[in-house]
Amino acid sequence: MSEPIRNAPAFHHFDSSQQTENLRSPDFTKRDFLRLCATGFAALSGIHLFGFPDNSHAQLAKKGLIKTKLSPFFTPLANGEIQCELCPKHCHVPKGKRGACRVRENRDGKYFSLVYGNPCALHLDPIEKKPLFHVLPATTSFSLATAGCNFHCKFCQNWEISQASPEDVFSYDVSPEFVVDKAKEAGARSIAYTYVEPTIFYEYMLDIGLLAKKEHLLNVCHSNGFINPAPLRQLCQTMDAANIDLKGFTEDFYHELCDGELAPVLETLKILKQEKVHVEITNLVIPTKNDDLGTVKEMCLWVKKELGADTPIHFSRFYPLYKLRSLPPTPVSTLENIRAVAVSTGLEYVYIGNVPGHEAENTFCPKCKKMVIHRTGYMIGEVRLKDGKCSYCGKPIPGIWT
Ligand code: SF4
Q: Is 217:266 a contact under the CB 8 Å cutoff?
């Protein structure tokens, strides 16, 4: 593994969309992180589980932990092969082999998750970092991930865990019960399935989610949306909010840069809406790859028509890393032009991400135009909402506020 992003128990697993410039720099190191902590800025940007709030349950991460759980989503084929039905990749997997996400294995004609209970990243994050701007502002979210991903994005910032097999990473042995207990103990209001594509640790996520619901914790995720409808609808029984990466708006973009497809992601967004899960969208704007204003306009019109004008959307700044190091960071002017296009289509909550201190981090009431939530990075200032409504004019603001 290289230095900038380390596996547990280091501090370096972050969401793909909502970081500061320093945190996204390929030269960012643990020393940088600690320096930011010392300045107070990063105090809310991610607290490692076993350093917080006590270490009575402390354990060391171990390399190569594997705990299996039978997948409910596969079809047996001839000769002991199986077809995975969890995500639209529909991997055909011979006996003894794994699917494209690296964390599901065919053992004697049955398909197993290999990462049930073995997260390699556990952090207490501000919920703003997911980013979820319309869910319990200024609360923390107990955040976790395992190894693996069903996409292979060339711009992935967590590639050292997302593009890894369980044997390659340091992980913990923690049951769903332990996760929920620890989240409560830490004072989190939600549990976040994030950092890599959570679909690939579906069984673990679902079991944690069921327990979390009983304990009145919200379940939230940051996802690429690449999941089949049946497992998604089942997951919606426990999921309260989702930030879905809409990485681009052409199939070519998804094929060239993500090894994925656009159409299933759009279907996921529609299903989440039908199932009444609170949805926000993140679009990481990559220079020359997905910054065409005409395509952005098309995307925004789709969002407005299919999901509603009140769907929050985050246009996030790209920083060069992983396989796209030769591209420059997104100019702030590009983000501002894109935001203007999005607003012109009628979208009501259009944010700019990864530019701390930018005015477009704040939430404005679409009716009276007053600022109702003030943000600087992950720090929340004044919140001018009353019972989920603008406290100036009374317009309902979509989200989960209590
Ligand atoms: S979840 Fe993994 S194994 Fe299943 S279809 Fe998707 S990539 Fe393949």
A: no
Mean of all residue pLDDT scores within the chain: 89
Calculate mean pLDDT across residues 256-265: 98
Query: Is the Cα dihedral 285, 91, 196, 235 positive or negative?
Result: positive
Residue 150 near residue 226 (C-beta atoms within 8 A) = yes
Helix (H, G, I), strand (E, B) or coil at 375: strand
Ligand 1 centroid from CA 371, angstroms: 43
pLDDT reading at 9 higher than 80: no
Q: What share of the chain is helix, strand, coil (3-state, %, to 5)?
A: 30, 25, 45
Query: How much is the pTM?
Result: 0.89
Ligand 1 centre distance from Cα of residue 73 (Å):
10
What are the tokens at 322?
Answer: 């992983």
pLDDT score of 45 more than 70: no
Whether the per-residue pLDDT at 8 is higher than 80: the answer is no
Structural element, H or E, at residue 218:
strand 218-223
What residue ranges line ligand 1, CB within 6 angstroms? 84, 86-87, 89-91, 99-101, 104, 150, 200
Please state, in angstroms and rounded to a whole number, the distance separating the CA atoms of residues 217 and 220.
10
Atom of ligand 1 nearest to the CA of 98: 3
Instruction: Answer whether 125's CB lies under 8 Å from 134's CB.
Output: no
265 CA to centre of ligand 1 in angstroms: 15
pLDDT tens figures, 59-102: 789 998 999 999 999 999 999 999 999 999 999 999 999 999 99
β-bridge mates for residue 282, sequence order: 245, 314
